[in-house]
Q: What sequence folds into this?
């Protein structure tokens, strides 16, 4: 690699770092994204100027096809479908890593790593690890995509001996890698790919839909490590640096999500949490009656409130209620109320999901606050309006040591003067735990589709 | 006499072969140890340092922008296209080149998709008027 090429790759790496740095504040974020694009452009142009790269026509066509597909998907996708889009994109990175590794195996001279059958052992190790991670990322992301999109049931799929099988497969992959490094046999290479595909599926199927934020972040991390692995094969620092950035980003996001649920990463990975199974196991029959209100009551009470905090959850995304919700907020503001939004770290199906949806509905980002920033204010708030969230408001997390969600940080909506719960029915939340709050004196349930309820309240406010 | 000379000839041939093999081996060993395994240590150094950079940079990202963060990281992880371009680069067509072209397409979907969707998300974040 010439000095100039190395320098150009270094510039790319720095631009990527600055692009992530830009995301520290919404005002600098767009510039950050632009720096990322610039870094990628430099990386691609530099690689194209490599003397070994000659087939510009074919490359141009492949790049154009990919670019058109990517752009048209990204332009059309609905913001509520972001989590599955990101999962689908991760799978592509994983698959690309597998193809690059396969290509390096069949034509090592293009990568300066010896000749077919005499690839140095170091390169073989890197190649096979990169392949395995890429393949796991590919199938794992496809399953995550299926669960988020509803192609695959969001319920955890658990069967006996599952973890034992995964362990055996994992050891099997390691054994295959060792054998591959000695024999350099092509059947072994494809066996590694195949076994990694299988383990990718098996790792994700036992994990429930609402744990997907952790999984999507984890796969984000894997796609980074796969890129770093290929970086070692190519002796290319740009890929290693970028891979490490993406890898640590995904790992940190998974950590934040786990902390938001007070669960260990291992606990999420082992799966089986949530879904119907947990609901039937943990759902004790409750004879108490929750107080039920209607939209007109809610409109009247909120119109006479000074301070209102809105707590959105995944239910808002499902009902596409963000625009109606913002309109309701605007009317309340016009009536003189102070309206703010409180976001729990694990609300929605990916980190920051709610923030994007509210931004889409034109809610200014300075009215949208994180748990730590707003949690103390509930006690001085007239109305807490919970829409499509449940477990993240359950006070049992603080008091009931036997509860599945004990220890999870929650939004203290119970401290508000009046609590409204917009829900489709009395069903318990994802964790399968009954929410004490439904039976409190200061709680009023508003049953119905989130969007419909908001629209009804808007009508009530306009009258 | 002729037998001895024949034997000598074959011996010298064998000796030459061995010498050839030895020199090949030596050069490949030199390549492996001098060239590549040096990069492994160097690469691991870079990897570890980059993890630290990533750690501090990502913790400074505001939680409100965690979705765009995933969009950007998804796009830049497609830097793997560097490998794909090298694989697709050679003129003569073989399976290795086709794999490279497929990888170029996949990475391009991701690059464009990732950056465009992130830009869409970020353009929606507005301050209070």
A:
């Amino acid at each position: 690699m010439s000095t100039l090429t190395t320098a150009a790759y270094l510039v790319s790496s720095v631009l990527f770092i600055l692009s992530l740095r830009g995301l520290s504040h919404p005002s600098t974020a767009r510039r950050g994204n632009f720096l990322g694009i610039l870094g990628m452009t430099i990386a691609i142009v530099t690689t194209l100027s490599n003397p070994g790269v000659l087939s510009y026509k074919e490359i141009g066509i492949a790049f154009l096809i990919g670019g058109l597909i990517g752009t048209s998907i990204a332009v059309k996708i609905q913001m509520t479908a972001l989590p599955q889009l990101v999962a689908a994109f991760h799978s592509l990175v994983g698959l690309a890593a597998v193809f690059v590794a396969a290509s390096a195996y069949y034509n090592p001279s293009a990568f300066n790593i010896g000749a077919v059958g005499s690839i140095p052992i170091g390169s073989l190790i890197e190649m096979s690890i990169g392949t395995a991670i890429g393949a796991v990322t590919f199938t794992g992301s496809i399953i995550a995509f299926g669960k988020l999109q509803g192609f695959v049931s969001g319920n955890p799929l658990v069967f006996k001996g599952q973890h034992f099988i995964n362990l055996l497969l994992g050891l099997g992959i390691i054994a295959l890698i060792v054998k591959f490094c000695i024999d350099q046999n092509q059947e072994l290479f494809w066996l590694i790919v195949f076994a990694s595909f299988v383990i990718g599926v098996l790792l994700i199927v036992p994990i429930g839909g609402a744990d997907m934020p952790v999984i999507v972040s984890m796969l984000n991390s894997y796609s980074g490590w796969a890129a770093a692995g290929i970086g070692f094969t190519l002796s290319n620092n740009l890929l290693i640096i970028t891979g490490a950035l993406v890898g640590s980003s995904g790992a940190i996001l998974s950590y934040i999500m786990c902390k938001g649920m007070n669960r260990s990463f291992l606990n999420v990975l082992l799966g089986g949490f949530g879904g119907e199974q947990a609901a039937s196991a943990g759902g004790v029959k409750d004879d108490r009656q929750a107080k039920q209100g209607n939209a007109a009551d809610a409109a009247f009470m909120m119109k006479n409130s000074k301070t209102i905090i809105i707590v959105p959850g995944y239910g808002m995304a499902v009902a596409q209620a963000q625009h109606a919700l913002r309109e309701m907020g605007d009317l309340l503001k016009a009536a003189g109320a102070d309206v703010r939004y409180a976001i729990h770290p694990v609300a929605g199906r990916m980190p920051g999901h709610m923030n994007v949806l509210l931004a889409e509905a034109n809610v200014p980002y300075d009215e949208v606050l994180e748990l730590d920033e707003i949690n103390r204010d509930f006690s001085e708030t007239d109305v807490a309006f919970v829409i499509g969230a449940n477990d993240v408001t359950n006070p049992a997390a603080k008091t009931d040591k036997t509860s599945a969600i004990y220890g999870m940080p929650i939004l203290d909506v119970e401290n508000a003067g009046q609590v409204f719960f917009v829900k489709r029915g009395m069903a318990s939340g994802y964790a399968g735990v009954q929410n004490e709050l439904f039976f409190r004196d200061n709680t009023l349930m508003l049953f119905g589709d989130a969007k419909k309820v908001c629209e009804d309240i808007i009508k009530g406010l306009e009258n | 006499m002729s037998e001895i000379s024949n034997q000598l000839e074959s011996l010298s041939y064998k000796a030459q072969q061995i010498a050839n093999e030895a020199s090949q081996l030596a050069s490949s060993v030199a390549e492996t140890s001098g060239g590549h395994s040096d990069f492994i240590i160097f690469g691991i150094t870079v990897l570890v340092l980059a993890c630290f950079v990533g750690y501090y940079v990502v913790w400074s990202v505001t939680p409100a922008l965690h979705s765009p963060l995933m969009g950007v990281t998804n796009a830049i992880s497609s830097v793997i296209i560097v490998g794909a371009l090298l694989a697709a680069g050679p003129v003569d067509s073989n399976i290795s080149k086709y794999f490279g072209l497929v990888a170029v397409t996949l990475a391009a979907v991701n690059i464009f998709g990732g950056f465009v969707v992130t830009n869409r998300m970020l353009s929606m974040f507005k301050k209070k008027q």
